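Input sequence (292 aa), recorded before submission:
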Amino acid sequence: MLDRNPMNGPGPGKATPEQDPPGTEGQMDPKPDHGEESYEGCGKLEGLATIITGGDSGIGRAVAIAFAREGADVAIGYFGDEEEKDAQETRRWVEKAGRRCITYQLDVRDSRECDAFVARVVTEFGRLDVLVNNAAYQMSQDGIEQITDEQLERTFRTNIFGYFYMARASLPHLKEGGVILNTGSVTAFEGNPILVDYSATKGAIHTFTRALAENVKDRGIRVNCVAPGPVWTPLIPSTMPMDQVKQFGKDTYWGRPAQPIEIATSYVFLASADARYFSAEVLAPTGKTPSR
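Predicted structure, token format:
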């Protein structure tokens, strides 16, 4: 079971050597907790077919493990060759839980690749019930002057275009009771001075969630968002200066970032029938009271 005392979780240690984004789990210190040894399922998602983009590591891996232990088959989308090892490790945990797993390399910035990923999942699983849009890109900069056109476009194409493409590809296959979950962020509420473009995309994701929920409500499809605070994932040491990584999460009530499994439980809830009255909501496990 999960440790009920939030003060017991570890914070960043040596903070890992520098990595290229989105980063890998293997070099992180301490290792993130994805629920490998702590999460116990109880059949909340039995028999469902699910897609998770960015499912190789971080929040995505934790959601994949939790979904599998709740009885769901899981398809994991991951970005590149560097993330292949992490994707296969996530697959190992999903299959250990007795569920089917697809690993699929794609760039969510390309709508054709999103279409192909969804098509393969529907072919192999025979259905699609839950889409989790989780792939993300960020790169910290001291000022807006340092944000190049290339960075701005990559951030928006990954974080909001990719969500749009995956939702558009998935909706024809989602039946009544289907679910779309988007990963937002506390930065959408508060902003972040070194993540100006990233914060803007997360605000767009929150609004996209509410607009899409309105658009598909008559089809019986629910659309919600999870907006975490600081979470100990590879994206942090691969995109932030080491001095800031060491302070990451210190401003929360618990004085540390969340472990991925502590966020994944929100996705389990929103994907399950327990949340059948929830749509157009932004659930915010931020570790503090965010400004809204």
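Checked by second reader. The radius of gyration is 17 Å.
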